[in-house]
Amino acid sequence: MTDWAGRQSDEVVKDWLRQMHLIRFFDEKVDEFFAKGMIHGTTHLCVGQEASAVGACAPLKDDDMITSTHRGHGHCIAKGAEPDRMMAELFGRVTGYCKGKGGSMHIADVDKGNLGANGIVGGGIPLAVGAALTSQMKKQGKVAVCFFGDGATNEGSFHESLNLASIWKLPVVFVCENNQYGMSGPVKDMVNIEDIADRGASYGIPGRVVDGNNLLEMADVMEEAVMQARSGSGPVLIEAKTYRWKGHSKSDAKKYRTREEEKDWRTNKDPIKRFEEWLLEEGRITKEEAETIRQSALDEINRAVEFAENSEEPSMDTILEDVYA
Amino acid sequence: MREITYAEAVREGLSQRMREDSDVFVLGEDIGVYGGAFGVTRGMIEEFGPERIRNTPISEAAITGAAVGAALTGMKPVLELQFSDFITIAMDQLVNQAAKVRYMYGGKGHVPMVVRTPSGSGTGAAAQHSQSLEAWVAHIPGLKVVQPSTAYDAKGLLKAAMEDPNPVIFYEHKVLYKSKSDVPEEEYTIPLGKADVKKEGTDVTIIATAIMVHKALEAAEELEKRGISVEVVDPRTLVPLDEETIIASVSKTGRVIIVHEAVKRGGFGGEIAGVIAESEAFDYLDAPIRRLGALPIPVPYNPVLEKAMIPQVEDIIKAVEETMRGA
Fold this sequence. Notes:
Number of helices of chain A: 10
CATH architecture of the largest domain in chain B: 3-Layer(aba) Sandwich
Order of helices and strands of chain B: EHEHEHEHHEHEHEEEEHEEHEHEHH
Order of helices and strands of chain A: HHEHHHEHEEHEHHH
CATH superfamily of the largest domain in chain B: Thiamin diphosphate (ThDP)-binding fold, Pyr/PP domains
Distance between the termini of chain A: 51 Å
CATH superfamily of chain A: Thiamin diphosphate (ThDP)-binding fold, Pyr/PP domains
Strand content of chain B: 15-25%
CATH class of the largest domain in chain B: Alpha Beta
Radius of gyration of chain B: 19 Å
Helix content of chain B: 25-40%
CATH topology of the largest domain in chain B: Rossmann fold
Oligomer: heterodimer
CATH architecture of chain A: 3-Layer(aba) Sandwich
Shape of chain B: globular
Helix content of chain A: 40-55%
Largest interface: A-B, 46 and 42 residues
Strand order of the largest sheet of chain A: 1-2-3-5-4
Radius of gyration of chain A: 19 Å
Structural class of chain A: alpha/beta
């Protein structure tokens, strides 16, 4: 391990904590609103997976790029999206990232390198490869980080994209967040190998397994991978083992797993708690500071809700805006 | 003016854009030293090198998606899909990604890409290499659809497609690749959404696309001898569709036959018929709107059957005469 993450300044590591809190509060708030029927459509929450999002984006520069998934709120926040405009998007308001036309599964901020969440499982993987191709052809030095879940690695687009990125040595880092479950069952029913990272070997791509609930480990492995990709040595496949605390989407009875298992992950492997403990042990932060960071993140999400609620609905004359064919 | 082939016109148009705009590049299967399955990119790798004439693995989903991603981040990719039938494997990236990005992201993000792809039967390539699936993509809001019928149109429309900030599906007809017409050496643009009246006439309008334009013109020549004056309209682009030219022509002649090579059932001819029926041209109709398209079957291998599947000159002549009789 390079201990790159551990060597970052207090300011940086505290910001990682802040981002993880933001992600958790954001998705918990969204969960609440769906339960109350205040938001329509559907959503996929990443509560419990905060460390893989923040750790993956930790070594990125502002102009690096990401592609995300249907479970993408965490990736957006980790890449610097503003929670108020995200929340406004979920409320379908004109101040949202997509002017209320995209919703939870399509938040994007192309100018800032967030090439978009994606409603098609595996759909964003080739897009990341294309973005990396642009970086290579224009010699921009940018890296594309491509998020996807365990389920996407059974899609053809995953395999085709890894091969393409490998033969062209593209600056892309493939990040598989293996949260152990698909919509209705465990990943082991659908993948007959222990580690999805092994799939990289077929394409000459190094595969790394990471504890996705350990922010420091995630950030360290990512930093190495991003360096490799940026240097022109080609892509890396990282498998972050993590756990989705909530169900697949808003209506999921979670018949495929036990409440005890969920409790174990929540109590013993909470990525935020683990990182906070490390910060305290290392003397990087005081208990009071930790509480202030938590509270300010909560305040920010509450302000985001207020912003969303007070924003305008799109007017009917925007329905044909951005239509060209 | 010199005559060149349709394939040469496409190659010339591509090369001229690439010399002027370093963001334009071509990717596709076997387009490098091989020059593409139909030779369209022949010689281009020698001029532009393997970076910009980018040979890809046989991975239609990934190469299409990579083109979308590259377009979204500042390049102007031209993707050659080796046979238009292979669009089936690229559909997610075209329909769910390329077509949606701009609207779904609230106007942020453009996908300036062109998918060039050879379609049509007549080469004995059978059911999986001969289809005309343009109606599939024309149905999708967010994709422009072009079907040039001549070398001249191909070059000018391709320039417009490459300069368009949005995804364009550019259907080249494989039987037309060797057809010749007068093509200026310099660059020129034919705007998307502008139909071309290939032949003026007064008694009946034939709206034909791609190779059917040539069959319609041949039919028109024979019909002139029989005293029927035929107007042949080539929409050239299905999306956007030049409804104005179509409606004006039908309003003038009062009779219309729509001809395409694609299967008639669910084909784009139904859309054109609908446009006419909903317009003021309806009041001028002296006979029912007729559609000619392929039989609803997979393209057969046997050359006699293959030919029988799609409308031929005689079929068009027969349909026009029946329409003239009001049958």
